[in-house]
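User: I'll paste a sequence; please echo it back and then give the predicted structure.

Assistant: Echoing your sequence first, then the prediction.
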Amino acid sequence: MKAASKFAITTLSSVLLLGSSMNLVVDAASSKSAQKSTAKKAADQAPTAAEKKVVDAEIKRVKDLTAKTGDTYVMYYKYKGLNSGLDLNYWGLTKEYASFDEYLQKASTLKGVILQKPSNLPEGYTFSKARIGGPLGGKFIDDLRAEGKKSGKPVFTKKMDWKEADDIRLEYTNGEDTLAITKFVVDAKEGKKKGYFDDNLPANIFPKYIYWQDSGKFGYSLSTSSDITREQKIEILKSAVKK
């Protein structure tokens, strides 16, 4: 091989090697820069010790306030990591009642449909407990998020006054079976359904459910492990849901 050819090959190899080395250097620098950027972003998103103290103090304040007043409060978190990855925390949103009279006292102050004691319960069933839950979404929550972000505070709290329940549940028992009647918010995809529907659970899975929807925002269900007929379930559900 001629000297000129050898020189050309050597030169080309050097250029290629130099190019590869430069690419490695550039890639390493780029990766290092990205790591620094990610680390800085994570540091910017992490709460300071002082902010953590503010959040802890606010949680205690709201917890005590809810227990004292029975009101509902919603907390917006700037740092989701301080709230199990969620940006909202609800206090006093759901309440349980040990007697039907206590339940009815609260339910009678609400707008919309509430659940009544069915007049045609199977023999042997008596009231066990009730639950009422407020709304998880809506304009109040949208506004709260916007105000919380704008405030820049590690946690932002507002009292929520709600007048219509998103969730109501009555439970009756005969000592062996629990018969539960529930009002719930219908999923948007299911909202157009109308009529009575059975669940799709396997035959060996209990309790069994029957659902009632009328194309509105709310649906209603009855669940039981007893052997009462489908017609009986429908009549009990009708008796409990008075519009």
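Residues 1-18, 36-44 have pLDDT under 50 and may be disordered. Residues 73 and 91 are 5 Å apart (CA to CA).
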